[in-house]
Amino acid sequence: MSAHKSKKPSKSVRMRAAELQQSNELLSLFITNSPIYSFIKEVTPTESRVLIASENFKDMIGIPGSEMTGKTMEELFPAEFAAKITADDWEVVFNGKILHLDEELNGRKYITIKFPIVLDGKHLMAGYTLDITERKRAEESLRKSEEKYRLLHESMMDAFVRVDMDGAIQETNRACQDMLGYSADELKQLKYFDLTPAKWHAFESQIVKEQIIPRGYSNVYEKEYRKKDGTTFPIELRTFLLRDTAGQPCGMWAVIRDITMRKYMEDQLFQAQKLEAVGRLAGGIAHDFNNKLQIILGCAEIIAESLPPDHPGQAGLQNILTAAHSSADLTSRLLAFSRKQIAQPVALNVHDAITGSLNMLEELVYQNVQLHLGVPQDLWCVFMDPSQLEQILINLVDNACDAITGSGHVFIEAANRTLLAEDFQGKSDFVSPGDYVELTIRDDGAGMAPQILEHMFEPFFTTKGVGKGTGLGLATIYGIVKQNGGAITVQSVQGQGTTFTIYLPRTSPATVLPGKASDSRPRTGTETVLLVEDEEAVLHLTCRLLEQQGYKVLAASLPNLALEICEQYPESIHLLLTDVIMPDLSGKELADRVLKNRPDIRVLYMSGFTAEILQQRGHLPESLRLLRKPFTSKTLAQQVRAALDKTPLPPTHA
After folding, report:
1. Per residue in 113-135, is it b (16+ CB within 10 Å) or e — as a string?
2. Confidence tier at 621 by pLDDT (50, 70, 90)
3. Secondary structure (3-state) at 108
4. What pTM, to 2 d.p., does this model score?
5. Is there a contact between 553 and 525 (Cβ–Cβ < 8 Å)?
6. Check: CATH 3.30.450.20 for 156-258?
7. From the CB of residue 530, how many other CB atoms can be counted at a distance below 10 Å?
């Protein structure tokens, strides 16, 4: 019987077995120590069992991979989640395809990739899972940030534009598109130079070179943009530099504001300041001019009264008087323009005032022009000097007639209007909300060009020929309207006509008590008058006029001299007639001191200064009795007598 010895594996077989064992160990080490969740499972239609899993599953489900081996999904995960995993695993094995899954467990988000493996006839499945919770949070945070940026970007009132370093437009917001009239896609086909008039190119290139590149941003600067329709408009903007990850300039972005309305408001403010400056000058000139007119008018009256009516010199004297009155009217217009006219406002029935002026207005209208009146009887009252409303009508109707060549029409219309805040949006020179009488004077004449409209309220600006206009008509109207708390607008189209619209604030109608008509005849007297006037020529002239009317006059050229007379004169002084603005003491201050010693004395002020200056410097009470320079001897007599008798007088004009 022979003995059989077992055959040992060859060396090569042993080496392959060792290599295989080492590979299995490496694979096992790779899976168990993987920083990502890794696994291999054996799968049937109803069961998915772990063969090997990475140890870090402890972070996910609290069980390390070594303890998961041999367990089914139902033993490791909640039932519903386990059923889904088993179904997904079988789908991979059955179809032999890779499966990508987004999963969520215990509030954390994962992405899993599963793929089939066939080993020794067994259906295996391998895969790995990544925890993407932090990435998803970052993505969500970025999404919300971008959403906020987009919302801010699109809701901005100002325009936004982003360009590359060649100036090609990359991005704009809705405000920018609306501002320029382009769509977003159209703007992306342009460069920012295409939107900027050529005269600004060199200026803006300098801004980029000297400010944006070295500093990273520009100062706020102004230029113009051109819209899709070709019109240009002013803007202000500030531009910022964009850099890439290497720190190199890669583009610019800017916030842009349309300043059309602001520029309009600035122009209106400049015009208002210019008108105010000229008004102040007019007020100062008027005072000196009124004193000179007082001397001319008074002396001419004295000479005329001293000569027989048929004297050859009477004609020349009448010319002097006419010229003096005309000059006084010109001064009155200057004062009205400066908005400091010493007006005598009353509660004025606008319907009655306009219809009462109709005959006079019809005399102004040329034969080729028809005057139309549309004034309802239920118009509200306004608080203003009747002569001022008359002056507005005369000037505007006269201008309307001059604008008509051939035949034409002039319309005077009025209506009650309640203005709301939205009625004057974008209008700088307007009024407060409330009730107004709207007065409209329109014509179908030649109209005015835009460059004329810009200057029409400026004093001495006229389009009429030499000798045909002073240039004070519209300036005077502007001053009157503003003095009475109103507003004036104008619309004009060349070849179609002009419309002036005036808004005057409503007032309550005054109750007029029936009474006796005032006696307008000059009245004389024998009382004693203390006359105070720092202009020597006016002092002597007024003294002479008062003496001719029978009064005893105590004349003083300075307030201090007047106080000395009051203290030393032994008899009664019945009236203090004083200028308002004088050296050392104002007329009001002088009157206060005189009244302390002579409480029964009457006071009458006289001045060629404006109402505003009188209030600021003289601090006159509202109830003052004022004799306006230049005055006639008749006016002087009426005012002095009324002051002595304490009787009211209607408004008087030189």
Report:
1. ebebeeeeeebbbbbbbebbeee
2. low
3. strand
4. 0.45
5. no
6. yes
7. 24
CB 185 within 8 A of CB 282: no
Domain chopping of the chain, boundaries: 17-135, 156-258, 264-335, 346-507, 528-645
Q: What is the DSSP letter of 621?
A: -
> What CATH number does the domain located at 346-507 have?
3.30.565.10
- Position 167 scores a pLDDT of 92
Q: Does domain 528-645 have CATH number 3.40.50.2300?
A: yes
> Tokens 């994962």 map to which residue?
110
Q: Per residue in 499-521, pLDDT tens?
A: 999 999 998 775 433 333 344 44
The pairing of strands 434-443 and 497-507 is antiparallel
Cα–Cα distance for residue pair 70/171, rounded to 1 Å:
59
Q: What pLDDT does 511 receive?
A: 42
CATH architecture of 17-135: 2-Layer Sandwich (3.30)
Give me 355's structure tokens: 């219809």
| Two structure tokens written together for 419 | 């203005």
Cβ burial, residue 186 (10 Å; 0-12/13-18/19+)? middle
Equal CATH topology for 17-135 and 156-258: yes
Look at residue 20 and tell me whether its pLDDT is greater than 70.
no
- The pLDDT of residue 612 is 57
Predicted local distance difference test score (pLDDT) of residue 479 = 81
